[in-house]
Amino acid sequence: VQGIKFFEQYFHSHHVLKLNDRNLTNLGLLYDHEAMINFKKRKGLENKARYNYQEALKLNPKFYPAWWGLGRIFWHNNDKRSLPYAKKAYRIAKKVKAKDVGQFAQNIALIYKKLGDDRKAEYWFKRGLKESPKEWGVHYNLMCFYLNEKPNTLKAQGLAKKLKEILKTKNKSNRWLKEVYALVNKTTELSS
User: How far is the C-alpha of 135 from the C-alpha of 118, rounded, in Å?
Assistant: First the structure.
C-alpha cells in the first residue's frame, strides 16, 4: 500500500513520470500484488492494475512486462485467458533478446501448472532454462517443480547442484536468498 501511495503522489506531483511504460507497469504490479492479499478490494485493485498495464502498452505496445502484467491478473484467478498475454510477453522478450526471456517462458509454465497441465508446464520450465541458462531463478523454478509438482529427486538434485554454482556469486545475507540456499542444500542431500 505504501508503494502505491508513493507512486500515486509522485505521479501527481510530476505528471511527466506517468508517461513512462516502466513506471506505469511498476504501479500496476503494486496494485496486482495488493489485490492478491486484499480480498475485499480485489476487483477494484485488479482494475487499477489492468488500467496501468494498458496505459503502459498505449505508450509502448512492445513493453513485454506490461503484457505479462495483464496475464498475471487472469493467472491469479486460475483463468486460462492469461495464456495469450503470457505468450505475447514471451514472444516480444525473445524478439528483443531480453536478458530475462527465460523468466517469461517460465511464466507460461506457471500458468499451465496452475491449470493442472504438468506436461506443458514442464516443457515451458525447461524452455525457460534453455533461454536463460545463467539465470538462477529459472533453475530454482524447475527444481521446485521437480520437488513438488512432478517429483523427480534426481532431476531436482542435478538442478540444485547447478544452482549452487550459480549462487556462489550472490549475496548470502539476503533473507529470501537464505531460504533458496536452504532448499538447495536440502535438495542436494536428498536420497534418490
Answer: 22
Q: Is the backbone of residue 122 left (phi > 0), alpha (psi -120 to 50) or beta?
A: alpha
Taking the CA atoms of residue 151, residue 154, residue 160 and residue 164 in that order, the dihedral angle to the nearest 10 degrees is: 170
Question: How many Å apart are CA 47 and CA 10, to the nearest integer?
Answer: 20
* pLDDT values of the chain reduced to their tens digit, one per residue, 192 residues: 788 888 888 888 887 877 899 999 999 999 999 999 999 999 999 999 999 999 999 999 999 999 999 999 999 999 999 999 999 999 999 999 999 999 999 999 999 999 999 999 999 999 999 999 999 999 999 999 999 888 888 999 999 999 988 888 877 677 778 888 888 888 888 865
Helix axes 64-75, 101-114, angle to 10 degrees: 10
- Decide if 69 contacts 49 (C-beta within 8 A): yes
Biggest CA-to-CA distance, the chain:
59
